[in-house]
Structures are given as C-alpha cells and as structure tokens.
Specification:
Layout: E1 6-7, E2 10-11, H1 14-20, H2 32-49, H3 58-73, H4 82-90
Antiparallel strand pairs: 1-2
C-alpha cells in the first residue's frame, strides 16, 4: 500500500514529489491514445515515488486515488499555480 515518501527525518510533500517528476514542457501528441499513454506513463513514474505500483488494475485505481488525495491535502492555501494544477489533473 502507498506510503508518503520521506527524506531523512522530514516528510517530502506529495506536491513536491509530483513537481520533481514533471517538466513544464508543452507536449504535443499525434493522437488522443498517444496523449493518454504519455499521461499514464507519467502517473506510473510518479506513483513509484509513493511506493505505489500502477498496473491498470482496480487496485491501482485505489492507489492513484490515495496519491491524488494526498496531493490535494498538500496544496498551498491559495491553491497551486494554474500550470502545476493542470499537470496534476493530467495524472
């Protein structure tokens, strides 16, 4: 089951983990399936940082929901900047 990533004695926030794994580069895709595949790959990579394994099963959906819930809890009071929020929504 997923657990929060830690650095030494300090917990690294879910948002920090997410942001360390995405690049703010505008991607273009040849098709919707190619876009969905790219987003799925990014979600799998980020999930590893949460010790979660996404494999397109029902259990992996529960893992993803837990990661997204943690991201929501770690948002700053005013919310994330729109470009970061857009990337989080793609996951």
């Amino acid at each position: 089951m997923m657990r929060k990533a830690e650095l030494g004695h300090h917990r690294k926030s879910a948002a920090a983990i997410f942001l360390s794994n995405y690049t703010n580069v505008m991607e273009t895709h040849d098709s919707v399936p190619a876009m969905a595949g790219a987003y799925a790959e990014q979600a799998v990579t980020i999930a590893r940082e949460f010790n979660a394994r996404l494999d397109y099963s029902e259990n992996s959906l529960m893992e993803l929901e837990a990661i997204v819930a943690q991201l929501a809890l770690d948002l700053p009071p005013g919310g994330a900047p729109s470009d970061e929020l857009t990337e989080m929504c793609k996951m």
